[in-house]
């Protein structure tokens, strides 16, 4: 068993972490589906009218709305990837271990950010490079 208390040999901690990650994943999938419907609706509405973003007074806001929803959808997909990686770490017994310093990530942080990969100290270190895009 690792010192994180989240490996498969600690069934209650494993089950709690798995349930938290699965719930976050289900919520994120639902949010992504809703955003996809919104995006498709924006595109479909624009297809019905000849929108000239440059000259139509509503064109700019339509383009902004489409870009905004696309950005939210991309972020939801990224979060799904983060959750899938967290589930993988959980299965491997590495969930809850800071990828920077190796220390245990506090349970409170994992409760708020189930896919967290760093402890609070490492996450707030300004010298730490940002995660890859």
Write the layout of secondary structure elements.
Layout: H1 11-48, H2 59-91, H3 107-112, H4 120-123
Helix pairs in contact: 1-2
Q: Low-confidence runs (pLDDT<50, min 5 residues)? A: 1-5
The percentage helix is 55-70%
Strand content: under 5%
Mean pLDDT: 85
Oligomerization: single chain
Q: From N to C, what is the helix and strand string? A: HHHH
DSSP E strands, number: 0
Shape: elongated
Q: Report Rg.
A: 20 Å
Distance between the termini: 32 Å
What would you say this structure looks like, in words?
By secondary structure, this protein is mostly helical. Helix content is 61%, strand content 0%. It has 4 helices and no strands. Helix 1 packs antiparallel against helix 2. The protein is elongated.
What's the short story on this structure?
The chain has 133 residues and is mainly alpha-helical. Helices cover 61% and strands 0% of the residues.
List descriptors.
single chain; 133 residues; mainly alpha; 4 helices; 61% helix
């Amino acid at each position: 068993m690792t010192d994180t208390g989240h490996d498969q040999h600690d069934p209650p901690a494993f089950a709690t972490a798995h349930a938290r990650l699965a719930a976050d994943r289900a919520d994120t999938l639902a949010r992504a589906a809703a955003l996809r419907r919104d995006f498709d609706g924006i595109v479909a509405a624009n297809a019905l009218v000849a929108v000239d973003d440059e000259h139509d007074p509503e064109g700019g806001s339509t383009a902004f709305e489409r870009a905004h929803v696309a950005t939210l959808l991309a972020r939801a997909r990224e979060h799904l990837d983060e959750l899938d990686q967290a589930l993988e770490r959980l299965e491997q017994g590495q969930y809850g271990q800071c990828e920077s310093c190796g220390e245990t990530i506090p349970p409170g942080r994992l409760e708020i950010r189930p896919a967290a990969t760093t402890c609070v100290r490492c996450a707030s270190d300004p010298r730490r490079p940002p995660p890859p895009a």
